[in-house]
């Protein structure tokens, strides 16, 4: 799809910003990600974010909602620890879900 701008075609890209079926979790301020340094949640490459993951997995009241949101919105939650999972773990879950959907459709 293109649109014309000054008689030159300009590509138009449609990007879904967020999946409306999976709302962002309602945060109260008591979540560990709101109480610790943000750098902990976005570890350097090669670091598995163990500290942030352990906080998330043991004390986050919105763990499941956060995880669901991150899995449904990979373009917004591409980096960092979301729902106690790293980017690689979230990608693996999405691949498994896609394969299960294909197998169920066959």
Secondary-structure blueprint of this entry?
Blueprint: E1 2-5, E2 8-11, H1 32-35, H2 50-59, H3 63-72, H4 87-105
Average pLDDT, rounded to a whole number, is: 86
Stretches where pLDDT is under 50 for at least 5 consecutive residues are: none
- Pairing-aware structural class of the strands and helices? mainly alpha
Strand order of the largest sheet: 1-2
- Portion in beta strands: 5-15%
Q: N- to C-terminal separation?
A: 32 Å
Element pattern in H and E: EEHHHH
Please give the share of residues in helix.
40-55%
- Assembly type: single chain
Number of helix segments?
4
Please report the total strand number as a whole number. 2
Biggest beta sheet summary: 2 strands, antiparallel
Shape: globular
Overall radius of gyration: 18 Å
